[in-house]
Prior knowledge:
Radius of gyration: 18 Å
Mean pLDDT: 81
Strand order of the largest sheet: 2-3-4-6
Structural class: alpha+beta
Distance between the termini: 50 Å
Largest sheet: 4 strands, antiparallel
Helix content: 10-25%
Number of strands: 8
Low-confidence stretches: none
Order of helices and strands: EEEEHHEEHEE
Amino acid sequence: MSNLDEAFILDGPAVISDEVGGETLAINLNTGAYYVVPPSALLVWSAITGGVPGRALLDGDSDPRAGALEAYLNRLVAAGLLRRAEEALAPAVAGRWEAEGLDLQEHTDMADLLGLDPIHDADEAVGWPVRRAED
Length: 135
């Protein structure tokens, strides 16, 4: 079965997402990676993370965007941002999206900071976000 036929939701509580300045930020707290979903992919992101199966976003089986959408879904799943939903939601998607607009920008520059336990891993003298020296 293709990921296009599956319903997904955001993999919370380990994954959080919020819109900031017209872009959507998602943070995978398990890995410390954060992702930027640009406005061009927001319609698809909102539908997918809300439990709408990918196939519902296509205009039939021969839609040329199907490959791009399936690749995008695979990337979101591989990043650990989604989990399978127990049930699919009825599609209520308004708007048009383009395959070229499906983007997900991954950033790992803060992964070490986000992965620090502020109580147990922080330096006792300085505090978070300075890592405690290894003994």
